[in-house]
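Order emerges. As here.
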Amino acid sequence: MGTTAVVALQQENTFWVANLGDSRAYLIRGSGVQLLTIDHSVADALVRSGALSAEQARNSPWKHHLYKFLGCVEMTEGADIHPFAPRAGDRLLLATDGMTNHVSEEDLTQAIVRHRDPQDAADYLVNLSLERGSKDNVSCILVSFDPE
């Protein structure tokens, strides 16, 4: 058995995001969305190596084959760790692939614009994923970095 994970840790003014598998972290700043993690799927690795295009990877039979995840006995390296310094108004989304496979980056920014409350935006994204047919675990945490 194995699972994917994405976590965030705050140390003073820096946040550290780590992931294993294809659960993701996004930084939403203004109208921009930045993926802070990489998917540990075979298809995504093939995109990074240049063997597949991003479009080919979306339809690849290797999209859900993970080479790195919690519980992987063959894993020789740990999680990928990515630091970032949040600004007032930023949002940090931690989400499972059950969500991110069914919502676009545009959907993420629209959720923030339509729903200023982080819980309302998270609920909207979960419901949108389910409406679009997700059969996988759909969960997320949305952190809001509001001005003091």
The chain has one domain: 5-144. Residues 5-144 form a domain with the Phosphatase 2c; domain 1 fold (CATH 3.60.40.10). The CA atoms of residues 26 and 35 lie 5 Å apart. The helical segments are 42-49, 54-58, 97-100, 105-114, 118-131.
